[in-house]
User: Fold this.
Amino acid sequence: PEDKVKKQKRRRLGKNVVLDSERCILCTRCIRFVRNVSGDESLAMIKRSDRMEITTFPGKTVDNPYSLCLTDVCPVGAWTSADFRFKQRVWFLKPSASICPHCSRGCSIWIDHRHEEAFRMRPRVNLQVNKSWACDEGRLNYHLINDDRLTVPLINKGDGQKEASWRDALKAAAEIMAEAGENLSVVVSASLSLEEGKALLSMQETLGAKVMLNTGEPGWEDNILRQSDRNANTKGLTELGIKEPVDTGLDDSAVLVVFETLGSAPLPEGIPAPAIVISPSVTPAVKAAKVALPAASYAESAGTVVNFMGLSQSYSPALKPKGQALSHSEIIGKLAAAAQKAGE
Assistant:
């Protein structure tokens, strides 16, 4: 009919969110969320009667750090994620419980995946930690699970990095570690799990290496969820005894073994290029290494982390490891055995 009220179907009201005004039932839950939770006065109701609709104030957009929570509070799916919008039928996705590793809050999350690919992350209700919320940055970091992954061991013998078997890569790494002797130093990401930290300390006892904790530079923080410590397990590893910061005064005689995690902090400037890097992703450290070993990410392994409040939380694998990747614990065990054999 000619008098049918038509509204916009795809309204990009923020960097990460799209509103379907025709689907909206004007419940105002989104308005109450931005006002009462995220503290953002960006949304309002305009017009009257059947012409009413939700929109932004003039000159404003919905760009607060928790804008994607609107997709959770909307009861009819009028708010959608610009990143995930219509990429998959949600009933085809399998949700797996996990822990967000991108700050020391350790929010409880669901990883929604299909065919060994992650498509989105959603908050999982945990009243002690994150209630029902998750920040946009943490949600969108699911891309790290899929993109730029290190899937095979690499060796650089002076003519560029080339793919190698695990046997050859471990042998090359063991020779480097055995030759290093007292100059061997290990730098670990503060997002390694407690189990991986304990395995690392066992390797330290075997090899006598110096172990340093890389927490990186502080990030942004707010009074809702986000913590400035961008690591999942700084408190847990510190309590294990791994607390010495990265020594930026190391000279070129130092032989570095670096353990990275998904999205972990880069190495500080001014330290020597790493000789051996264990990482889930192709990072600058991996590209500079003589030996690079592919590690499973938090989405493909099990472990326990301790958040900034001292709360211990466990996570389980949601996906299979990418390519030939192994868990950090497995790699630590294989490295220690190979280095011990090479030193005999």
